[in-house]
Structures are given as structure tokens and as C-alpha cells.
């Protein structure tokens, strides 16, 4: 959430930022509410000063025996109190309306983020690895997986509905191996692992920006809980309404969770296979950092995600998202895209973002440093996929497939699969 004072003092900056993001916001309502808020505060201050003067005068009148005048002034004070009560009630309403309005305004892009309208304007910053040249026609995972008994799309529909999948046999084992490998690797690089609930309440999802704007993308339960779209929600809110000590920053957290998304706005996109499904596994990274180091932490987080792909030997590219393609809460985002032979292209497998103080303001996450400044300041929060497990499984199947339908297991995953080196071709 943007700071109301910043918006008030920098209307042109915010207006241009929203234009760069192709986002609309109700500037007229904000300025009107903000003006009313200041008028209410001023009117309340005048009345409170008048009440204080009258209260002091009443004592003097009573002391001088001017009881009738004192009683009349008491009546006037009661009337003033009623006016103040009305002003305070309206001020509470206005503050709530301003907050509601600001909760729907996206973050301001960081300096240097490329300005653009869509994903076509994203900028590639590096590549790693070379896509494999097959001496046979590679099979897409939506055919390879079922043929080898690793993925069952029909069972997913039978048990739930379309865009759910069932993994079986070595497909399920490979999925679990990837999860454990990712968690162990991030742990070796300084991340503290958590196991968190797969459901979250409204306050938690509001803290990270999924609510109120993106409720249609969430699965909701009958008792007002939501299935989480990412562990970022839970990991970030672990410190909601807390003040952290500066010497404990930065904090690096990670967690594996199942994730659930309605994908309400994705009709017709990546409908085949496991690229865009309603339930998927993901290992998430979250950081809490001081403002002066948060962009360095973003570079390091992106490198941590890339490290997983390098260890797996999967070619990828890293791009910086333009203003028109960034997520709601991000100030700067790197997407990492893995090579998939079925698309003859790169597909997103991780998104690493610095949200600066946008989420921390919503969730009231601060830090203090007595030797540096008085009071407390908002932390900067970062999040990144490390990685999307299903897409990683797809990348392994497609990039490591052999002509007979078998799949070579990457070296780093073999200890997690009891030393197995190959998923043998079925039949």
C-alpha cells in the first residue's frame, strides 16, 4: 500500500507511475477524501481548543459565583462535544475510505525498471545453458507423462475438475525429490525453512496484497478462509504487526506448500499439460531487509533461484519485467524462464520481486535500530519462487527424455530417489 502522505505530496509522480503500469486509480476520490480529512481535522482542532477554553472559564465563573453563566457555558460545551463526536465519527469513515482506496492502488515501479505496456517490452538480462539439440522428435510432457505412467490428467478431472493432475509412480517420486532438493539447497544458502498452513484468513491475504483486489483468483472456504496462492502470503505475515530488531536483518525464509489459484483471467492460456493448473507445488523464498540493502537482496534471491536450475542442468533465461507486466505489489521483478522443448521456447518458472515497503505498510512490519534512528521504520519485503515444482518436473521430463521414452534423472536428484539414475520407458 502506498503512503497517503506520499500520494498527497506527489500526485504527479503517482499519476505517471500508474500510467506506466497501465493501471487506473480514482485520483478524484482520493483528493476529495484527503481534502475532507484535512478540513475535519482542522474543524475538530478548533472545537477542541474552544472546549478547553470554555472548560477553564467554567471554573472561574463558579469561583466568582456566576452559576447561571457557568451552567450556560456547560451546555455550550456539551454541544461542542457532540460536534466533536460527529467530526471524529466522520473522520473515522474518511480514513477507512482512504485506506480502502489505497489498498487497490499498485506499487510504484523502482527507478530503472523499463517502461513498457506488456510482456513484449520485458528486457532479457542473461541466459544460462544451451537448449539441447535432439536427434529425435522430442515428446511434449502432456504426451510423455501419460505414456510413461507419470502423469494422469484424466484422473485429475475425475477426482476434481479440469486443470488438476495426478502424479504416479516415478512421477510422484520425482516431484517429491525436487521439493526436498530445493529446500535442502536453499537451506544450505542461509534460508530458514518453515512449514505453514495451506489456508489463510482475510487479514493475512490483505497484508501481502492478494485482497481485496484479486479475490476472484482465490479459492474460498465456507468459513471465510482462503486456500493460499503462494507461501509468500504466510511467510511474510509471520511478522505482521511486529517490530524486528535491525541486527536480525536480513531474514531469509523458505517453505514448501501446495498452492491454489482459480486462474480466473487465464482462459485459453496454456490449457494443455501442467503449465497452468489450479493446484501446484512450489518452494517459496521470502526476505525481510533494510531499505538500503533490499535491491542487493533481490539480486541474491534471483541468483538463488537460478542456482536450482543450474544444478539441475536446465537452460534458462532471466528477464526484468517492464512496468506494464509487473505484479501488483512489486517495485521490481525478475522472471526466470526455463527452456521447454514442447514450446520451443522459454516459460516462466520463477518470479523474484522486491516489494519495498508496500507489503510492510499493509501488514505493519517494522524494524528498530536504536543506535541509528529513533522509533521504528518499515522493512522491505521480497519474495521469489525457488521454484515452481510442477514446471520444474515438466522441464526435467522434456529436457532429459530419451528416444525410447525413458528419462535420465539429473545427478543432483539421484540421492533423493534412492540412487536411481533412469526412469525406464514403460513397456
Structural key phrases:
single chain; 427 residues; alpha+beta; BirA Bifunctional Protein, domain 2; 2 domains; eight-stranded mixed beta sheet; 20% strand; elongated
Task: Give a written overview of the molecule.
The protein has two domains: 4-102, Serine-tRNA synthetase, tRNA binding domain (Helix Hairpins); 119-423, Bira Bifunctional Protein, Domain 2 (BirA Bifunctional Protein, domain 2), CATH 3.30.930.10. The mean pLDDT is 95. It has helices at 4-9, 11-20, 27-63, 67-102, 141-147, 153-159, 170-188, 202-208, 232-237, 294-312, 358-363, 389-399; strands spanning 123-128, 151-152, 166-167, 192-194, 199-200, 226-227, 242-245, 251-260, 279-289, 316-320, 332-340, 345-354, 365-368, 377-378, 380-388, 407-408, 422-423. The chain is elongated, with a radius of gyration of 28 Å. By secondary structure, the chain is an alpha+beta fold. The strands form five sheets. It has an eight-stranded mixed beta sheet. A three-stranded mixed beta sheet has the order 7-13-14. The protein has twelve helices and 17 strands.
Amino acid at each position: 500500500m502506498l503512503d497517503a502522505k506520499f500520494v498527497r505530496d506527489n500526485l504527479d509522480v503517482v499519476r505517471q507511475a500508474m500510467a506506466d503500469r497501465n493501471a487506473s486509480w480514482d485520483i478524484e476520490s482520493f483528493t476529495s477524501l484527503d481534502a475532507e480529512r484535512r478540513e475535519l481535522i482542522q474543524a475538530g482542532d478548533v472545537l477542541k481548543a474552544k472546549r478547553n477554553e470554555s472548560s477553564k472559564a467554567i471554573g472561574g465563573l463558579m469561583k466568582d459565583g456566576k452559576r447561571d453563566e457557568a451552567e450556560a457555558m456547560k451546555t455550550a460545551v456539551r454541544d461542542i462535544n457532540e460536534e466533536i463526536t460527529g467530526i471524529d465519527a466522520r473522520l473515522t469513515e474518511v480514513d477507512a475510505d482512504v485506506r480502502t482506496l489505497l489498498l487497490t492502488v499498485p506499487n510504484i515501479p523502482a527507478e530503472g525498471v523499463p517502461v513498457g505496456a506488456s510482456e513484449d517490452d520485458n528486457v532479457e538480462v542473461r541466459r544460462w545453458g544451451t537448449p539441447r539439440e535432439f536427434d529425435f522428435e522430442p515428446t511434449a510432457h502432456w504426451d510423455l507423462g501419460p505414456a510413461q505412467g507419470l502423469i494422469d490428467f484424466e484422473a485429475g478431472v475425475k477426482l476434481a475438475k479440469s486443470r488438476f493432475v495426478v502424479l504416479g509412480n516415478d512421477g510422484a517420486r520425482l516431484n517429491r525429490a525436487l521439493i526436498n532438493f530445493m529446500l535442502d539447497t536453499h537451506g544450505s544458502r542461509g534460508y530458514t525453512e518453515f512449514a505453514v498452513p495451506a489456508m489463510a484468513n482475510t487479514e493475512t491475504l490483505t497484508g501481502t496484497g492478494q485482497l481485496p483486489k484479486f479475490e476472484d483468483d482465490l479459492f474460498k472456504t465456507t468459513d471465510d478462509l482462503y486456500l493460499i496462492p503462494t507461501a509468500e502470503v504466510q511467510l511474510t505475515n509471520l511478522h505482521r504487526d511486529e517490530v524486528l530488531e535491525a541486527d536480525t536483518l536480513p531474514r531469509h525464509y523458505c517453505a514448501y506448500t501446495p498452492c491454489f489459484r482459480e486462474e480466473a483471467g487465464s482462459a485459453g492460456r496454456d490449457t494443455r499439460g501442467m503449465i497452468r493448473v489450479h493446484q501446484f507445488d512450489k518452494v517459496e523464498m521470502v526476505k525481510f531487509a533494510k531499505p538500503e540493502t533490499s535491491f542487493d537482496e533481490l539480486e541474491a534471491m534471483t541468483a538463488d533461484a537460478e542456482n536450482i536450475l543450474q544444478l539441475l542442468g536446465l537452460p534458462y533465461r532471466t528477464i526484468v519485467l517492464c512496468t506494464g507486466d509487473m505484479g501488483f505489489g512489486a517495485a521490481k521483478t525478475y522472471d526466470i524462464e526455463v527452456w521447454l522443448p514442447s514450446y520451443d521456447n522459454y516459460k516462466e518458472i520463477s518470479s523474484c520481486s522486491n516489494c519495498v515497503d508496500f507489503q510492510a505498510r499493509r501488514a505493519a512490519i517494522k524494524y528498530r535500530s536504536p543506535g541509528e534512528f529513533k522509533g521504528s521504520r518499515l522493512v522491505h519485503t521480497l519474495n521469489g519462487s525457488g521454484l515452481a515444482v510442477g514446471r520444474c518436473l515438466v522441464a526435467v521430463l522434456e529436457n532429459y527424455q530419451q528416444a525410447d521414452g525413458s528419462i535420465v534423472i539429473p545427478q543432483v536428484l539421484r540421492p533423493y530417489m534412492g540412487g536411481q539414475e533412469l526412469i525406464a520407458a514403460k513397456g
